[in-house]
């Protein structure tokens, strides 16, 4: 009997996952529409700029836009896909490279379709990566190390959310004893941000160490693109 994972993967191969999503860029630019496509065979998630006339509608960009280099691209192998608690439309992808994409679908049903489809591709390519990589570690220890990396990425994302909540709380503080420009509060905000960035760098070093000590996938990784600015 066909497993749920294989059924989902076969469905993604027959009907490639693609569509318009909102991508959180940064505090200044906020949410921006991008057209996303998933290549189930290679495990890459790519996104493109949307035509200005199609923004807000689930209409694919013109063929010449899709023929160009994508605005951004990430490998899904080793990633973690999880829905957000803030609403019924938002979800995030924590990539093995350390990049995190925060995305928003049109409604709860669309979000679930994206999450299910992406998780199937992630699991398929993560399994392929584990099989193709030889490791001196016993299988049990290798699995434990992989689980630890996933847990670390999830914990880091929660830390980022806490840091963002702290920053908003300080900026919106309304108290006679304190103001948003209070030196102690500004120091607390700076330390929180610096600590989060340090954790990002540590996780990146662990990820690079893991990649160096294991054979790479056959696919050629595309040039690094700063996802936060795309």
TrEMBL record:
Alphabetized InterPro entries for the sequence: Oxysterol-bd (IPR000648), PH-like_dom_sf (IPR011993), PH_domain (IPR001849)
Protein origin, superkingdom: Eukaryota
Stored Pfam families: PH (PF00169)
Domain PH: 14-123
GO terms, biological process: lipid transport
GO terms assigned for molecular function: sterol binding
CDD domains linked: PH_ORP10_ORP11
SUPFAM superfamilies documented for this protein: PH domain-like (SSF50729)
Keywords: Lipid transport, Lipid-binding, Transport
Entry keyword Acetylation: no
Stored PROSITE patterns: PH_DOMAIN
A Gene Ontology cellular-component term: membrane
Protein's name according to its UniProt entry: PH domain-containing protein
């Amino acid at each position: 009997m066909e497993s749920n994972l294989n059924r989902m993967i076969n469905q993604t191969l027959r009907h490639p996952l693609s569509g318009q999503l909102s991508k959180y860029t940064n505090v200044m630019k906020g949410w921006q529409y991008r057209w996303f496509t998933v290549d189930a065979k290679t495990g890459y998630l790519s996104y493109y700029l949307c035509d200005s006339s199609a923004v807000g509608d689930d209409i694919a960009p013109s063929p010449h836009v899709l023929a160009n280099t994508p605005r951004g691209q990430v490998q899904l192998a080793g990633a973690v896909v999880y829905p957000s608690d803030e609403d019924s439309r938002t979800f995030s992808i924590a990539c093995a490279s350390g990049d995190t994409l925060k995305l928003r679908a049109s409604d709860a049903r669309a979000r679930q379709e994206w999450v299910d489809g992406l998780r199937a591709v992630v699991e398929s390519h993560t399994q392929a990566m584990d099989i193709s990589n030889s490791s001196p570690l016993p299988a049990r220890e290798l699995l434990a190390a992989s689980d630890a990396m996933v847990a670390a990425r999830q914990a880091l994302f929660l830390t980022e959310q806490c840091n963002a909540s702290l920053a908003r709380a300080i900026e919106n503080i309304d108290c006679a004893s304190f103001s948003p420009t209070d030196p102690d509060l500004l120091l607390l905000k700076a330390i929180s941000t610096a600590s989060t960035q340090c954790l990002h760098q540590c996780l990146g070093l662990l990820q690079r160490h893991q990649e160096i000590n294991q054979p790479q996938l056959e696919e050629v990784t595309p040039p690094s693109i700063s996802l936060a600015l795309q």
